[in-house]
From TrEMBL:
Residue stretches making up the UDP-glucose/GDP-mannose dehydrogenase C-terminal domain: 329-452
Lineage per the UniProt record: Eukaryota, Viridiplantae, Chlorophyta, core chlorophytes, Chlorophyceae
Family: Belongs to the UDP-glucose/GDP-mannose dehydrogenase family.
Keyword terms: NAD, Oxidoreductase
Catalytic activity field: UDP-alpha-D-glucose + 2 NAD(+) + H2O = UDP-alpha-D-glucuronate + 2 NADH + 3 H(+)
Gene3D superfamilies: Cytochrome c1, transmembrane anchor, C-terminal (1.20.5.100), NAD(P)-binding Rossmann-like Domain (3.40.50.720)
Gene Ontology process terms (BP): glycosaminoglycan biosynthetic process; UDP-glucuronate biosynthetic process
InterPro entries: 6-PGluconate_DH-like_C_sf, NAD(P)-bd_dom_sf, UDP-Glc/GDP-Man, UDP-Glc/GDP-Man_DH_C, UDP-Glc/GDP-Man_DH_C_sf, UDP-Glc/GDP-Man_DH_dimer, UDP-Glc/GDP-Man_DH_N, UDPglc_DH_euk
EC annotation from Swiss-Prot or TrEMBL: 1.1.1.22
Parts of the chain that traverse the membrane: none
Name used for this protein in its record: UDP-glucose 6-dehydrogenase
Pathway assignment: Nucleotide-sugar biosynthesis; UDP-alpha-D-glucuronate biosynthesis; UDP-alpha-D-glucuronate from UDP-alpha-D-glucose: step 1/1
Residues that bind NAD(+): 7-12, 32, 37, 85-89, 126-127, 162, 273-276, 343
Enzyme class of the recorded protein, top EC level: oxidoreductase
């Protein structure tokens, strides 16, 4: 059996590496139009950072795992084709700002149709709006010259989380495969299930109809994001009342009906999927006339925007209502720890908010490159989800500096804002940092990872998200 995957990104690369690792009897080729990306996958400096990924790639690469730009050849030869291309939010036209732009998906489907001389199973790995399989089926069937070629479309959404992708792929909670309720559809489901059964217990391989599988992915992300927005909403109330959001989260998380996960209040959720998928879900609801349902889910995104804005206002308010010309050290730019991914990271909106008020942001992140940071801070909204984005020009910005040394980033700064929960931040010598900063020295912990009592003992004015406010901060707000 031969598998091809179109799209060598955060999903295509790691998922296919795991399939190849666990299925030595299957040849797996990941193809992409981005030559640099493919080159990087063939090197030991992979294009994405993910703990454990390099080891998996090194074990399978050259054995039964290959990365190539020869899309036509490998797609033409494959029995199963995963499609894992970008599905960005539309930036113009009907549905701009919410609907999914299926340009890249349709392009992939046209390519599959044009090179297919044998029947194929086409697997939706990208997150797509519900009913996409129907549209893709039409494109495939109308564009393939050979009437004997049959395309069976499956939905197999990816539930991995960046930062823990390898663990998630090795031991997934479940794998979901949706297919048509026909004999050939069910056969295709069984074929794909056999692949996963190489390492995943059968009871964790769930099957469904196509539309349920497509909708389950959007729903899963909407629910996860909703939990974050819910606890973030409560964090604002905690600050106003003297309650502590960690204590509230712990208390509710011990209820087995609620559970403890995804209850960490923070400066906001980020990542390539949550906002995009919720907006997409809302758009689908609107197009079928369910305005109230759409409005309900929009609120999850609005709350996230509010939380980022609230954080910026806290910083500015605490610093005597002016950050003009003040150096602010930003610790962490990635949207979460253990990844170099900055897509929709809350750090973008927070930095932009501070810069708008005249602050000079000095950014340190252990995994994100200066080019990426400058690109993210100057790009228009949703631009990051285009295949060419990582190659687009990166412009220096007047009030932004990127530092490779966290100590230098804090030197002469009025404040440190912790925006990503990198473990290394907990180990810093804050007493030494304090000495190098302008007084009063502020720390705004947007992830609640630092030892706040210790920081206060050193002399810092500490803002901890969702926690009772320092006396010093209260005065500024009354
Ligand atoms: P990505 O941007 O990292 O990778 C997409 C890749 O597809 C790019 O390298 C691009 O060059 C390539 N591509 C686009 N059109 C192509 C074409 N016609 N032929 C060959 N290559 C093409 O995106 P990522 O994060 O891997 O996401 C892919 C899909 O998976 C999206 O729909 C996303 O919503 C979904 N997803 C992402 C998750 C994540 O954690 N990043 C998790 C679950 C789903």
């Amino acid at each position: 059996m031969k598998i091809a995957c179109i799209g060598a990104g955060y999903v295509g690369g790691p998922t296919m590496a795991m399939v190849a690792l666990k299925c030595p009897d299957i040849e797996v080729v990941v193809v992409d139009i981005n030559e640099e990306r493919i080159k990087a996958w063939n090197s030991d400096k992979l294009p994405i950072y993910e703990p454990g990924l390099l080891e998996v790639v090194q074990e399978a690469r050259g054995r039964n795992l290959f990365f190539s730009t020869d899309t036509k050849k490998h797609v033409g030869e494959a029995d199963i084709i995963f499609v894992s291309v970008n599905t960005p939010t539309k930036t113009h036209g009907i549905g701009a700002g919410k609907a999914a732009d299926l340009t890249y998906w349709e392009g992939a489907a046209r390519l599959i149709a044009s090179v297919s001389t044998s029947s194929k199973i086409v697997v939706e790995k990208s997150t797509v709006p519900v009913k996409t399989a129907e549209a893709i089926g039409k494109v495939l069937r109308r564009n393939c010259q050979d009437p004997n070629v049959n395309f069976e479309i499956l939905s197999n959404p990816e539930f991995l989380a960046e930062g823990t992708a390898i663990e998630d792929l090795k031991h997934p909670d479940r794998v979901l495969i949706g297919g048509a309720d026909t004999e050939s559809g069910q056969k295709a489901i069984r074929t794909l299930a056999e692949v996963y059964a190489h390492w995943i217990p059968r009871e964790r391989i769930l099957t469904a109809n196509l539309w349920s599988a497509e909708l389950a992915k959007l729903t899963a992300n909407a629910f996860l994001a909703q939990r974050i927005s819910s606890i973030n909403a409560i964090s604002a109330l905690c600050e106003a009342t003297g309650a502590d959001v960690s204590q509230v989260a712990h208390a509710i998380g011990t209820d087995s009906r609620i559970g403890p996960k995804f209850l960490n209040a923070s400066v906001g959720f980020g990542g390539s999927c949550f906002q995009k998928d919720i907006l997409n879900l809302c758009y689908v609801c609107e197009t079928v006339g369910l305005k109230e349902v759409a409005d309900y889910w929009y609120q999850v995104v609005s709350m996230n925007d509010y939380q980022k804005q609230r954080f910026v206002e806290r910083v500015i308010g605490a610093m005597f209502n002016t950050v003009s010309q003040k150096k602010i050290a930003i610790y962490g730019f990635a949207f979460k720890k253990d990844t170099g991914d900055t897509r929709e990271t809350p750090a973008i909106d927070v930095c932009k908010g501070l810069i708008r008020d005249g602050a000079k942001c000095c950014i340190y992140d252990p995994e994100v490159t200066p080019e990426q940071i400058f690109r993210d801070l100057s790009a228009p909204k949703f631009e990051w989800d285009r295949p060419n984005y990582s190659r687009s020009q990166s412009h220096m910005l007047e009030n932004v500096q990127v530092q490779s040394d966290p100590i230098a980033a804090a030197e002469g700064a009025h404040a440190i804002c912790v925006l990503t929960e990198w473990d290394e931040f907990k180990k810093y010598d804050f007493a030494a940092l304090y000495e190098k900063m302008v007084k009063p020295a502020f720390i705004f912990d947007g992830r609640n990872i630092l030892d706040h009592a210790k920081l206060r003992d050193i002399g810092f004015i500490v803002y901890a998200l969702g926690k009772p406010l320092d006396q010093f901060l209260q005065k500024n707000y009354s």
